[in-house]
Amino acid sequence: MPPQATMDVVNAVNLILGLGGLVVVSGLLLMTRWGYWGTVAVSALTIVFDGVSSFAVSMTAFAGLILPVVFVVLLLSRRAAYFLPQLP
């Protein structure tokens, strides 16, 4: 079992990433550039954090890599939809 201070840091970072995801999802739904890049950034940070957490805290954190990887691949494959000029 990791020390309490480690778990406090893990919980705080998870909260920050979750709140960041809630902010950028509105931009993603509106198909804005900041929503696109914000989602890619939050997903990338989540991948890094879950990768580190899987070794430092628990291997179950490795399961948290699945959805962010899917989101990044999906967003990067549909990049043109966010950067083509929008028709009125």
Question: Keywords, please?
Answer:
about 90 residues; 4 helices; mainly alpha
How would you describe this protein?
The protein is elongated and about 55 Å long. The protein has 88 residues and is mostly helical. The protein has helices at residues 4-29, 33-56, 66-77, 79-83. The longest helix has 26 residues, at 4-29. The chain has four helices and no strands. The model has no long low-confidence stretch (mean pLDDT 85).
What is the topological layout?
Blueprint: H1 4-29, H2 33-56, H3 66-77, H4 79-83
Sum this structure up briefly:
With 88 residues, the chain is mainly α. It has helices spanning 4-29, 33-56, 66-77, 79-83.
Provide the gyration radius in Å.
Answer: 15 Å
Envelope shape: elongated
Spatial separation of the terminal alpha carbons: 56 Å
Mean pLDDT figure? 85
Low-confidence stretches: none
Largest sheet: none
Element string (H = helix, E = strand): HHHH
Oligomer: single chain
Number of contiguous helices = 4
Percent of residues in helical segments? over 70%
| Structural class computed from helices and strand pairing | mainly alpha
Secondary structure: number of strands:
0
Portion in strands? under 5%
